[in-house]
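Q: My labmate handed me this sequence with no annotations at all. I'd like to see what the chain might look like in three dimensions before we decide whether it's worth expressing. Could you predict it?
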Amino acid sequence: MLILENISIKKFTTFKIGGRVKYFITITTLKEVEELIDFLSKKETKFFILGGGSNILFTDEYYNGVVIKPKFETFNFFQNGEVVLGANKLMSEVVYESCRLGYQGLEWAGGLPGELGGAIRGNAGCFGSEIKDIVQEVLAVNLLTKELKKFSNEECQFAYRHSFFKKNPEWLIVETKLILNPGSNSESLLKIMNEKINYRKDKHPLEFPNVGSIFKNLNIEEVNFELKKLAEKNKVIKGNKIPTAFVIEFLGLKGKQIGGAKISEKHANFIVNVNNAKAQDVLDLIKFIKEKVKEEFNLDLKEEIEIIS
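A: Here is what I predict for the chain of 309 residues:
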């Protein structure tokens, strides 16, 4: 277990934003998890489990607690389609290896940022698929009680960009078992994967630090008649969702900048760090967008990112 003190969190997040943290602890084994739990109990302090650093925003203030950076990197493929993976394998690596070996089921996630544990925690999804569709079980440990438990797919309580682990942040995901379809054509899978990666490069502002989509997409059943008709007219409805990017763009908010943070001109549901942005710049932009959407459509946007303070 490696303990660092009073370090900047910026370099550990994809936004490159955030203040200093009191303790930054790296763990790699279950034995070190036991040491970590003892450390937390003695300090009696708050903690946050950090994955790949996407989908989160640390505020500029000092984080008076422990940021935990696990490095569980198990990587096993089995002929029956079971894949056992450490929670901290990069999604890019997991997707590539799955496709290269002819295991179908993850090719849709080409270009998905972050780590597998974070994808499970937030039930990551795109192009009509979600990680919940291939999770069989999840091994996790409770950092308050020391309980080690295997969660079935049902026990993970997956929902749109949500899971049991997001609701109960004291549970540290260690590893997961996925069920994929072996024996598929690897060239076809890699082609699909690369198409998704290229789509993201073309449509998303990857040239600037960002954390992905800021707001959750809108459930068509929860919007007013005016917005529903507008979305139908513009043919942007996907399944039962209206892209929040469409609403923000419709209001002409692309390019709005506060400090070093800017609403992307490439994708309206992205805020990008264009010039050493502060967290407050991002928070002010989020507030600005929410107020404009509320004013125009009487709609309360919900953040997809998690704000850590």
